[in-house]
Amino acid sequence: MAIRKIRVDDDPILRKKSRPVEVFDDRLFQLLDDMKDTLAKADGIGLAAPQIGVLRRVVIIDMGDGCMELINPEILETKGEQMEDEACLSLPHKAGKTLRPMAVKVRAQNRNGNWVLYEGSELKARCFCHEIDHLDGKLYTDALAPGEQVYRVEE
Ligand code: ZN
User: Fold this and answer.
1) Domain ranges across the chain
2) What are the residue numbers of the active site?
3) Cα(79) to centroid of ligand 1, in Å?
4) pLDDT score of 154
5) Domain 12-152 architecture
6) DSSP-derived pairing of the beta strands 94-100 and 151-152
7) 80-100: average pLDDT
8) 32 CA to middle of ligand 1, Å?
9) Cα dihedral across residues 143, 111, 60, 119: positive or negative
């Protein structure tokens, strides 16, 4: 287990598309464990592998009720919309209001390669969208609500 360096700001890796995971082996488990340590240390609720420089379709989300491991995640369905503030560990000291679906259905593989269905609304839906976007090189700044701008947040 190890804390990995979180890539920030205009690091070009944040804009790259991640490749699917095909092999569910010890290297993947190590990546997931390192991501958990890194997320806990950073005190965040979600982390995508490209944020630590690994271009693989892996996301973890921990909203305080246990850590979800999402491998090769896909959004299957969206419902409604919401506009709320969003921030990202890769864009420190910033936030912005995004336009996201109010609820999403997601499928993803777990560390054993089995497909699992997830549903989330409100914050959890934003989190699914935000983290899955990272796998396609997209940041929340690409999903800002009409007329909204990124603003600075003091520590
Ligand atoms: Zn992020």
Assistant:
1) 12-152
2) 131
3) 22
4) 86
5) Alpha-Beta Complex (3.90)
6) antiparallel
7) 98
8) 16
9) positive
